[in-house]
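Predict the assembly for these two chains.
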Amino acid sequence: MQVTGMLTGARLLAHVDFPTSDVLGPDATEDQIQALIDRHGVIFVKPLFRGGVGKKGKAGLIGRADDLKTALAEKERLYFAEHRHGNALAKANGVTFEAGIPAEHEVYFAITDDTRFRAPTMTITHRGGVDIEELGKSEIVSVPFDALTGLKAFVVANALTSLGAPKEIISPLVQHLPKLWELMHHYGMTTLELNPIRMMPGGNGRLTPIACDFKCGFDRDDPRVGRLGLPDYLFAADISVFEQEVNQLRTHQGQSDVFVINDKGTILAPTFGGGANSLVTEVLGDAAIISSDFGGNPPYEKMKAVASICYRHFLKQTNVLFIIGGKSNNTDILETFRGMGDALREHFAKHGPVPLYVVVGRGGPNLVRGMGNLADTLDSLGVPYRFFGFDSAISEVVAYAKRVDQWMRSGGRDEIARAMNINA
Amino acid sequence: MYRQGIAGLPYYLGIDRLDQIATPEDRVCVLNILGGESRTVTPVSHAFSGGNVVFGTSPGRSGQVLKTPAGDIPVFNSVLEGLKAGHRFNTGVVYLPPSGVRDGVAELIRVNPDLRKIVIITEKIAVHDAREIRAMAQANGIDIVGGNCLGVADSWSRVRVGGALGGDHPEESLLKGSVAVFSNSGGFTTTIAQYMATAGWGTTTLISSGKDVYIQYGARDFAHGFANDPRSRAAVLYVEPGGYYEKEINWSKPVVACVVGRWKSKLTRAVGHAGAMAGSGDSAEDKERWFIEAFGTDGVFSAETPHASAKGALVTNIADIPAALTAVMALNDMQPDFPPRGSLALKPWIANDQGLHLPPDVALPIVTAPAPYAGQITALSDQIGAVIARQGMKDKSGASVMDPKTQVTSVHGHTVLDLALQPLNAMFALPLVHELADAHDRALLDIAVSAEVNLVGDPILVATDAARDAGNAPNAIMAVAAAITGPRRVERALACAQALVELFAKSGLRDGRDDAFDISTISVDDETRKLFLATQGEADDPRPEAMLAAIAARGGRSVFLRLLQSFGERLSRDAILAAITTTIAWGPMVRKRISRLTAETLPWYLRLYGVMVGATIPKEHHQSGSLWGIPRSERFQNWTMADLCCLAMTGKQPGPTEALYIQILIGLLISNGPGAISAQGAKGAVAADGPQTPERVQINKAMIGFLTHSGYSHGGNGFEGMAFLLDQFRGCALTDPTDPAHGLDLKAMARKFALSYKEEKRHAKELGQEVRALPGVHHPIFKGKPENFDPRERFIARFMEERSEYNIFHDFYRHLVRELFEVGASPYVFCVNIDAIIAALLLAVLWKDYQSGALSPRDLETAAFTVFLFGRMIGAAAEIDDHLNRGRNMDTRTPAAACGHVL
């Protein structure tokens, strides 16, 4: 859950009265753009991405214009721009027009929870506007501060002093930056980064920090995010319908993030436990359809609902339904297996049977009762299966599921389909 | 701001050695002790630790207790209340929901000056709260483990605090040894301990750290306690991406680190905890590098590349931990703690290949599970046959379903179209075994039913004839026969079937026809044995011998019959019937396709099949030793169900083509799903008897339910199509309706009718009357296109085309729908529907006898109704069996609120 760019950023910063550059959205009229140019002389045209997308400037994705014609040409160039950063490919849908802020000084500022200090930590440099990785160690400073008292003016002042920052920027920053802690801490953010903050001279020569780019990450487990009233679509970038649907059921009682690994995969693996999830996803590779962690003792109804969603989206293409976890510590195997089995029975009844092989690797409370219940369901559906207890290495069971998938791909699926009297 | 704990550290840490994390002296208070998770976990922890929980809190539940094997744990509204009651503790365990965790921690810290440690189990705590929790704990000098963890345990002192390390049997995995475990994954903390035991390594302290942004007790803290713990000779770390917790730690003793999560960097967007921003240098690969550098190895340890040093080894799969640990320890001249326990090899506990032949590397043989699981699995396998959950079955069926788009119904996964092409005896077996019976089982079924058809000397015959004379339709006549085939008439046959199932239930027999099965392993007591033997009163019944002879003649194989025959005494017909049904049912039952209840009630269905078919044959044709002139031995040894059904309808054995079309007709009529009136009748009858007490359900009465819920509109209207065709072909010199060289101009006949029908329509419209519907033409679903088809009619048409077979009546219908359109009597080309096919096929079978005068129009009507009843008898059996197995008492009733009142 990340937000980048000034279109939303300016809105968020307004909650704590932090000054921002003027910004227009993709639906700005030519008159509005012209007026922006008239006011500021120079404007920047930036593609509008959803989610956390950085390094746009380096990728040549920031346009500069001092007349309407150039601004519109840049709009056309950048409106649907694509940006690859690592493995992530982002596609823009729209542009923003942001006022150019004349400034001598650019500041980088971020607050995040730094695991080196296990505390909220401010990172700051007066040599902002560049990749901070490129700065020397003496040019940037990270300062942890107390979460209960928050980011105080003296923390900012001390940090800037230790960096040897120009005197004229210290006072305005000390005045404004602590507000950002209020924004971060009280609205469910995990990270807040402004880069650059341009120090704009006012009529009296005093500088005002103006946020010219914005990036933040939200904590999806924090209900404080809701206070901002942000629309859901902001976070919907690249999330499949399945993910949206299934993650709505996310609570503290079971189920962490579920996401699609390969929507053409053939092993549907409801996984229990974060460790199992990592192992299974790693070893299955492209064969895995989803990566999931349904552990945490989900109650029957929830397990059934989650399984139903998984089946509805992916069972048709599935060769192996692979229910896998270590020896559960508290997740009730009977409840979870009953939920998944009943969902499968209902899915078959509603959408028709599919050729399937079920592999289970599991341990935990009510294990044999759970296995017995699932076996009864699969028997009644005519689905073949093999259940492993916790005394088989989970890694071996994962490899076994892959072997079954291979067999299914090379004729096994047809064989099961024939036995079940259905189409492969 | 932090209180200084261990000197020299820039933050508070109170735990100096690992053995201080979970000690026998620790006294514990559990917040939200009666919550769902704690309620199951805390009693195990408490008992395992010798009773270390002094009290728990649960607002509003003060005065209650949590029962545990080590005694009750008192519950208070708040921590303060518990302290005021005189309890003292130094360790808090938090099971509160996420939004309450921060306040719970504050409560523990503020009201209890003795507090030293907190273990937070709750997951999905907001980072906001976690950072404040950290700050509170640091300022007040409290060690915290978690959140999102499974707590801590000590294998030496057998103490477990918070969470469920070791699951519900901690003693199985928390084995005393020399290795400390620190894991980001709660579940894998236990799994790793189990894995290590296979190489002989036990544990000292196990810590499930959690993997939130804030890991309150981190790897660095662990490293400090590990260094000072003389019990721990080595450590195993399980590490996930995100955070710098493991960076630049100076490990004082050997360590095996398992770093997982490379896959996360391949994803196209950031995942994992919020702190793990892409490119921030804390990916799985980064962490692997930290450890490789710390250990001075050349890469990842695996079976192929055993990179290890005396300092440690890095693995990326937990399965490699035991070998890596042994290798590292060997470099330090240290041996495992105990002989290896268990193995990591694949051990399937439960499997069913559903009769498939799988490759050897997939079809791994079942392995006996360790105690106590083996006993539980054995208890499961004692449960022979499918176990089916009961539910309200009103308007629902587990046996049949109609596809609303194609209007094609399936029964136990087979469409009626496919079934129509199966031998009739396979159709009769399907409702009862839920599979298509093979030739062997079909032959046994033929014998069983043949033995019931001839009703000579049976009061049923008198009753059915009286019913026939009284002018009843065939359904009412069959109902009379079914009524007399009541529970007492099948009591012994059912008892025989139950006895056979019981005798063989634990024998390991997989196939009831297994010639190699050693029946000497089955011991039968005298009372049971007597159950199978013919009585004095049955001395004159010739059928047992005839059945045995027929079974022998048809090559029948039956383990059950072999057992009964080994008695060396005369068997009753009931015993042989039960042996046949158990033979047919055994495979599907052990494969769990059918329940034991179904297998044990099967004789009743077969007896009903025979009696109901027999009842449709007039009394005079039932003679001692012969039926309609067919000798018993021939019938038993050669006749099929199709022959019997045809005999009942036409009085003679059909030729192969006739039998085929009777079979197709019956197949098409098996079921229209649970919504059909006939199915509702059968289901209502089961519901009324109460399927939850299955032994009280009268299966014969359920058959009557279906029969009373069929009639001239539902079942008898097949005759309307025939009557329509007879009208059209009246006076035609048609001798063989299956000969395409019939010499008739069907197009002209169809056009003539179409024109008259158009006129009739126009006339009716003028008078404001309803236009009569044409039987066999049009369908409420298959309509509206320029040319329309009923897929069921197309299926049969294609089948006939493939066999180069011809049916003039069907051909006429095809012309008719076209001509109706051509002359403007229909807005588009109507479909020829399934009723037309039924009428056409049946009339073709009966045409010659009708032409010769052997059959009257009334006989044709009876035949049309009877063929429906034969088909639906199969479908009804499927619904009855299904409702008996799945339904609840009186579940077909409609609530009063859903009923209407009209005036």
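Chain B has three domains: 18-26+90-331, 400-715+874-886, 718-774+777-832. The first strand of chain B starts at residue 28 and ends at 31.
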